[in-house]
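TICKET #2291
ISSUE: user wants both folds in one file
ATTACHMENT 1:
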Amino acid sequence: MTLIGVPRETAAGERRVALVPKVVERLRAAGLGVVVEAGAGAGALIPDDAYARAGAAIGDPWAADVVVKVNPPTPEETGLLGPASTVIGFLAPLTRPEVAERLRLAGATGFAMESVPRISRAQSMDALSSQANVAGYRAVLLAADCSTRFFPMLTTAAGTVKPATVLVLGVGVAGLQALATAKRLGARTTGFDVRPEVAEQVRSLGAQWLDLGVSASGEGGYARALSEEEQAEQQRRLTDAISGFDVVITTALVPGRPAPTLVTAEAVRRMRPGSVVVDLAGETGGNCELTRPGERVVRHDVTVAAPLDLPATLPEHASELYARNVQALLELMLKDGEFAPDLSDEILAACCVTHHSDQLTEAR
């Protein structure tokens, strides 16, 4: 029987866990064994006895055949892996290649959840999207907490308060969730992206589309590179537009590269006092020139917040969603009830960052 190990996450501030009891039950029904480290679910308020009732053993997860994590294993954790073991989790292959190298030298196989291709067949395994949904939702709540103004329009005996205006820059999964959440709170919402083809998605959420008059549409549905003149004009128009909003939420990320600057220091200076910028790209430098990753600062009476791990602040649902992604990937790796990843499968080939045979081949 293949044994799945679930260790306790050790990254600072991390409260998620890679598997929840409901998913443990499903994996057990599929013929897999599960061992959970004591206290692994404590951050998500899941007690050890809940895992035990689901059929998991409480013990050492590092000797398991497959170790499932949220964050990349530390050097110390990599040293605990058994021979020819497998690790599944966010392994940061583009930003922290040393993680994959440590796994390779340890003779382990690594599957990176962030490398699951975004194709129809892999939607249930798309952990980037599931966690981006959490981040987009939480970003709006953070903005409302930092704001000096109401989000909804309020009509009172003392008069009417206008609704807050929210601009979301980058309307991928996190951006669309941010627009939807801000709308639910009663704000007037607007979305912008360099891909004009997503305008209908923005409008479908009851938001307006910010048209800067500079299009990056290219062939095959991909954005083309803007010329220097077009970039400068787009930035000028965006800076002008930002000053009219109470809240700006930025979500623009480029895999393996520094985040693009969307909100300049001048744009922040021109915003109304009490306004808020929530930058979800802080881990790669941020979309705002005044961002300090992991901090909340006030500049020109405008709050600029750049949280680094928003999904971890909603550990219960974030863990549930992530565990379902892991379950779907594990099920793809099973053949006749046995753990046998087929690396000719395009999904597994895309997310496999190292394979234990690499080390064996080198040793020969």
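ATTACHMENT 2:
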Amino acid sequence: MLTLVCYDVNTETAAGRRRLRRVARVCESTGQRVQKSVFECQVNQAEFEELERRLLDEIDLQLDVLRLYRLPATRGMVVKEYGQFKATDFEGPLVI
């Protein structure tokens, strides 16, 4: 299932800047960055739960915001992209 991870980490302190880097590393290990604080992750239910747990371990619930959007594989789902970034199609052929 396609999952969008969006976060806003308070970076007013050195601890906040460290949290931001740790949250980004967790996301980078699972998906691809599509905007500065938005990642697309192709995960199954177990991987989703692990990702959620790891992210909750990193953020400060009093200062930060974390949003996880689970998008079911519905027939006809369309994602439109504009601009320089082109996302990897996880469902398409892999060419090395």
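RESOLUTION: both attachments delivered.
EXTRA DETAIL ON ATTACHMENT 2: Residues 14-28 form the longest helix (15 residues).
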